[in-house]
Specification:
Blueprint lengths: L2 E4 L14 E4 L2 E4 L17 H18 L7 E8 L5 H11 L7 E6 L8 E7 L3 H7 L1
Parallel strand pairs: 4-5
Antiparallel strand pairs: 1-2, 2-3, 4-6
Amino acid sequence: MKFYSIQTEDALAAIGPYSQAIAAGNLLFVSGQLGMVPATGEMVGSDLASQARQAMENLKNIILAAGLALEDVASVDVFLTDMAGFTDFNGIYQEFSQSTNRPVRLLRLRRFQKAVALRLNVLPAKALRIRQQLR
């Protein structure tokens, strides 16, 4: 099986030796995203709302760079540092998830090294278009 690296300047660059996303077979594996501004590498703000919007925008841009859309996402892992932000996050999530077939979601609590309010991971299910484009 061939792996294809997906990179875009419209999302946070990989901080270490990894890719923003990898297309493998019929799947796209996207690196977890934080609420960091791609151009500066700085947190967009200290609040959950601004970080959630930026993280969703970063994920959307990586998925678009792979030739997919947010509607292709089958699974989302949400890591919040405080469950008090759950309702606010749901509202922001709905702004980005307009599909009637919403992906499966897993919510977890987690502490991060920086002043991070959340991290998002997604798994789109349609990578067939990616393989065709990269040939």
